[in-house]
Structure formats: structure tokens, C-alpha cells
């Protein structure tokens, strides 16, 4: 069976009993690995591997012994409970022994979990699972987790009281970090809120979100846009210590002011323009961008972009002037423009 996204989420979260196997395939190995981890845990429980109810086979094992998949599926474990047989990084070369074992499956045998990279529709492995009446083929796409997936992950972590701004912050974060980092943030949030009965708030997400150079860039650009020229020097020194270059800082500033200009120039007003941004922004950052776009207006933001383009060309030229000093002067000029 070929499952759509909704049915796939239900299958991975709670696999139907007495089903022979599941194929997970996709281009992003991290996303496939995370779904595989969720599926195996749902199949055999959190202690299944400790109880030796999970058997792992490598593609090399299949080449050495053609019947090993069937043999391991039908073996009986020492401990009671459901079993799973995992084969990772399978390719078209391994289709025959895998599909033969799938055909030979009987109730009580281990559930066969196969992961693979990108598989074409004509792939024998993919066609075998998609054409099977009770096995599942699930394509893992490079999309960030949706609201339902985030809520399910929070529920598994024991977090059920979620404020709307916290969900918005998590949705925005899911669009900016890779799946592994996002899962680590959720685990950190669960520890952070352990024993706290209050609902999860956006401030809790901000406290647990990964600290990066982008966060520091956002801070200095917020200071510049708000016209706080006296705070530019200390923040700039911190960015220099982190290894940020003048060119990357200029590019970040152009991106920030271009976002503001897009919002301010929207025919429906800055609020409508903020709502059209992709990826979407939520929470305190959305409020700050809206306030800045309304305060500056499209005309002054256009002037700011012209100044930044001029600075970028100067930084990329053969000038002998200190580049960070040039960038600092531009930021101060922008801050002074913001006071008008």
C-alpha cells in the first residue's frame, strides 16, 4: 500500500497489528532515520531493543545469505513481545530477498522495517511494497513537520498545555532548523518544563532554541532598525569575536531591510505584507517586524537598501579601507535614519 501523509503519520505513530512490513524512503537520510526511530519504538516499545526484540541486518548480510531475511523474520525471541527486523539503506539490489521474505510472512513473524534513499516509481523494491495488500510504502519528503506532527511530538514528551504563541514559535522554528536539531529542541523544552504545570509559552521556546550567529545578527539589526546607535559598537564586537565577516553582515542587513520593504510596500498595508512572508514569522519577531515596517515606511526602507547595496559594492571592491569600520559606519547611518 502506498500511504499518503495523513495515513503515514497514523501508521508510524500506531502501526496496525499483524502487518508484515513498512518501507520508508526519501532523499533526506536524517528525516528517514527519525521516522524509522519513531516506527520501531511504536512497534516494539521503548525497551524492545534492550529485550533483544529488534534485529538489525545490513545490506552486506543480504548479499552473503539470501534467506537470512526470512529466517530472521520467523525466528522466535527469548523475551515475549512483538519483534522487528530492520534493514537500513536498502537498494534495488536487495529487492529480491526482501520481497521474498515479505511474501512468506505469517502472523507472529517479526515486522520488517526497510529504509532506503530516493526510489523511482519503477523501483522493484518500491513497487513490491506499494503493490502489497497489507505492507506499507511511505515516502518521506523534505518538508518541515506540520502542526499535527509537532503536537504529536509534544504529547510524546508529556507536553499537552500549549499556548498559541508557543505553537506558532515552534512552527516557525521547524522551518529554519533541520529535523534533528528540531527534535533536540523539543527534548530540551520537555526537560525545561518538567514539573511546571503552566502552559508552554513562546518565551520557553526562545529559552531553549539553539543559539546561533543568526540570533546575534537579528539582535544587532533590531538595534539598528530601532535607531539605537549607541548599542551598535558592543554588539558588533561580539559578532567579530564569533567570526562574522563584514560582507556576511551586510548581506544579513540587506535581507532584513528587504523583508521590511516588502511588508511596508504591500498594497494591503504592513500587516498584510508581514502575513505574506515565506517562511512565515510568528510571535515577538512578527510584532517587531511589523512595528519596524510601519515606523520606517517603504520610502525610507528603499533608501536604506540603496545605502546597503552601495556598501556591499564597496566591501567587494579593492578598497584598502578597514571593511568592518565601513560596515559599522553604514549601520550607524542606518540607525540615525531610523530616528527621523
Structure commentary:
There is one protein chain. By secondary structure, this protein is α/β, with parallel strands linked by helices. The protein has 3 domains: 135 residues, Rossmann fold, CATH 3.40.50; 62 residues, no CATH class; 125 residues, Zinc Finger, Delta Prime, domain 3, CATH 1.20.272. It is 56% helix and 8% strand. It has a 5-stranded parallel beta sheet, sandwiched between helices. The longest helix has 33 residues. The radius of gyration is 26 Å and the shape is elongated. The mean pLDDT is 85.
Return the CATH architecture of the largest domain: 3-Layer(aba) Sandwich
Q: State the secondary-structure class.
A: alpha/beta
Biggest sheet architecture: 5 strands, parallel
- How large, in whole angstroms, is the Cα Rg? 26 Å
Helical residues, percent: 55-70%
| CATH classification class of the largest domain | Alpha Beta
The number of distinct structural domains comes to 3
Q: Looking across the biggest beta sheet, what order are the strands in?
A: 2-3-4-1-5
**Low-confidence parts:** none
Please give the alpha-carbon distance between the first and last residues.
Answer: 63 Å
How many strand elements?
5
**CATH fold description of the largest domain:** Rossmann fold
Amino acid at each position: 500500500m502506498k500511504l499518503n501523509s495523513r495515513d503515514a503519520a497514523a501508521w508510524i505513530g500506531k502501526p496496525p497489528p499483524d502487518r508484515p512490513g513498512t518501507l520508508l524512503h526519501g532523499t533526506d537520510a536524517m528525516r528517514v532515520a527519525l521516522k524509522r526511530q519513531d516506527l520501531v519504538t511504536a512497534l516494539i516499545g521503548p525497551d524492545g531493543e534492550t529485550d533483544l526484540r529488534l534485529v538489525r541486518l545490513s545490506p552486506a548480510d543480504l548479499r552473503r545469505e539470501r534467506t537470512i531475511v526470512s529466517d530472521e523474520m520467523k525466528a522466535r525471541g527469548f523475551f515475549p513481545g512483538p519483534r522487528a527486523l530492520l534493514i537500513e539503506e536498502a537498494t534495488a539490489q536487495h529487492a529480491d530477498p526482501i520481497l521474498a521474505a515479505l511474501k512468506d510472512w505469517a502472523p507472529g513473524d517479526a515486522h520488517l522495517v526497510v529504509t532506503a534513499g530516493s526510489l523511482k516509481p519503477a523501483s522493484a523494491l518500491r513497487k513490491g511494497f506499494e503493490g502489497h495488500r497489507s505492507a506499507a510504502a511511505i515516502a518521506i519528503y523534505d518538508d518541515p513537520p506540520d502542526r499535527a506532527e509537532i503536537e504529536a511530538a509534544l504529547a510524546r514528551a508529556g507536553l499537552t498545555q500549549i499556548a498559541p504563541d508557543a505553537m506558532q514559535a515552534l512552527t516557525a522554528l521547524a522551518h529554519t532548523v533541520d529535523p534533528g536539531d528540531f527534535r533536540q529542541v523539543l527534548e530540551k523544552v520537555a526537560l525545561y518544563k518538567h514539573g511546571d504545570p503552566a502552559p508552554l509559552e513562546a518565551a520557553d521556546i526562545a529559552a531553549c532554541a539553539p543559539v546561533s550567529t543568526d540570533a546575534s545578527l537579528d539582535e544587532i539589526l533590531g538595534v539598528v532598525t530601532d535607531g539605537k546607535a549607541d548599542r551598535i559598537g558592543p554588539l558588533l564586537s561580539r559578532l567579530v569575536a564569533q567570526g562574522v565577516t563584514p560582507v556576511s553582515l551586510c548581506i544579513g542587513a540587506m535581507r532584513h531591510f528587504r523583508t521590511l520593504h516588502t511588508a511596508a510596500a504591500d498594497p494591503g498595508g504592513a500587516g498584510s505584507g508581514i502575513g505574506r512572508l515565506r517562511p512565515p514569522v510568528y510571535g515577538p519577531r512578527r510584532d517587531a517586524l511589523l512595528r519596524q515596517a510601519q515606523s520606517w515606511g517603504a520610502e525610507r526602507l528603499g533608501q536604506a537598501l540603496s545605502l546597503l547595496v552601495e556598501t556591499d559594492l564597496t566591501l567587494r571592491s579593492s578598497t584598502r579601507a578597514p571593511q568592518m569600520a565601513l560596515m559599522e559606519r553604514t549601520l550607524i547611518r542606518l540607525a540615525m535614519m531610523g530616528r527621523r
